[in-house]
Design brief:
CATH class of the largest domain: Alpha Beta
Distance between the termini: 50 Å
Radius of gyration: 21 Å
Number of helices: 13
Number of strands: 12
Shape: globular
Helix content: 40-55%
Largest sheet: 7 strands, mixed
CATH superfamily of the largest domain: Type I PLP-dependent aspartate aminotransferase-like (Major domain)
Strand content: 5-15%
Number of domains: 2
Length: 389
Amino acid sequence: MRFAGRMDLLKTESSFVVLAKAKELERQGRDIVHLEIGDTDFDTPANIVGEAYAQLQAGQTHYAPSAGLLELREACCEFFRRMGRGEYAPDEIVVGTGGKPFLYYTIMAFAGPGDEVIYPDPGFPVYESVTLYAGAKPVPLPILEENDFRFTTADLRERVTGRTRLLILNYPHNPTGGTLAQAELEEIAEIAVENDLIVLSDEVYAHMLFEGEHVSLATLPGMRERTIMLETFSKTYAMTGWRLGFVAAPAGIADKLTQLITNSVSCVPPFIQLAGARAILGDQSESQAMMADFKRRRDLFISGLNEIPGISCKSPDGAFYAFPNVSQVPMRAEELSDHLLDTAGVATLPGSAFGIHAANHLRMCFATSVENLEKALDRIGSALTALGK
């Protein structure tokens, strides 16, 4: 069987590979603590589930406009307005099947052979993978521990060329938990305007910021007309399996992204969209309680990791990931990740799954119960103690 050559350019996403292996171990009777996948143990709030059920009963099971139902797009405008992240009109909102497709759509819309895309490294693996698939050149921008998991604007400037078509930002950042302050964003905006760059601003963890205040890049001078701001219901409302996300972008860009939706998935099911509108416009108390609990879990887990000999871990400003440095452990991070799963029943990801600048790290998602986090800490500590004997 012969596949198109471009299929060799696509990479997998390690979190789902490790998840599959961990699930197989569970089927064999093993007890596994899941820290590998960016999901939460919280269920979707009841008012959202109830709305979806009511809309199913009401017959909202047919096609919808590719850009999204007006009711949801208006709610998304309110979402950004309420959070001080800009004023948008419904024709500047596009609804999709989660946040990930918009990474694909944006890269495919703006980058092709001979073009360059700058993206954070370590970073979400799809950035590099889809850039390669589009025939463009991925240009990694180092996110380093010694810079508090930020990149420097000097590093950014030296990577911009006449072939740069797209800059991808992600803050709060997966996998490191770092973020960007307003002063840094102002410098980035200056570079983007000077070089006429389109920016994909991946802000899906904006509501999971534990320190400081989130500032959306599109609110800065000269940036609204060149920024595609990505959001999703997955993290804020514990709706990972619903596959519902959206972007805010200038109408001309929104139209192109809508074309790609029409040519791929047609639309998001209307009962899911209307449940999303209820999520935004309804009671926010469950979502707010989840975000507060993530901070409590962060503090417990990071403190525990730093008590384990051989591990050091900065406290993340946002998102629900720990990114410990394991360079003092007598084993490469990839081998350590396998070892923790096979011998200790703790599923993690090696930093190398996220790029070339994170070889000495593991990513661990702390969006699980305190009981599971304490169990994971005990098992990791015991496994590393045994390694040292």
